[in-house]
Amino acid sequence: MEFENIKKYLEKQGNEDEATKIDKLPYKLFDPFIIHGLQVNVIEPGRITCTFKVPPRLLNTANTLHGGAIASLVDLIGSAVIYTVGAPSTGVSVEINVSYLDAAQLNEEIEIEAKALRVGKSIGVVSVELRKKANGKIIAQGRHTKYLPVTSKL
Q: How far apart (Å, rounded) are the C-alpha atoms in residues 87 and 82?
């Protein structure tokens, strides 16, 4: 692929109306955009399970659930499971790792399970697995490490 074609692909050069529409989107749109439609099925100390039907807005060019959307689900649901063990904050990401093992199709129902592996004074580590609800086949496995703010003793 020629450099100019790569540049056009990345910059998605469109007309001014498109840029204006994008700039007018609500502040902090990203998290609700990803998790809209998520159903929490189980929430208990150290564990959350959810179901999610793959919506058209999260498809990639191959018409499967976008890898970035999967990584965002690992981030968002992994962060939420930290609260279930009593942490006052979910902190900030230090590392996130996702292994993509299969694809999820449009309207396919998936199960997401997040587990707190360790939540200490300053570090939290969680695992998040996405599976096909119909057959249990693993779509992706993620591990997320977060720095938790240390509370002052003053």
A: 6
Q: Which residues contact 49 (CB under 8 A, 6 or more apart)?
A: 40, 41, 42, 111, 112, 113, 114
The radius of gyration of the chain from alpha carbons, rounded to an integer in Å, stands at 18
Structure tokens of 116? Answer: 């707190």
pLDDT along the chain (154 residues), means of 10: 72 62 72 91 96 96 96 95 90 96 98 96 96 98 94 69
Terminal C-alpha separation, the chain: 59
| DSSP H stretches of helix in 12-140 | 16-23, 30-35, 67-83
pTM: 0.87
No. of H helices and E strands in the chain? 4, 6
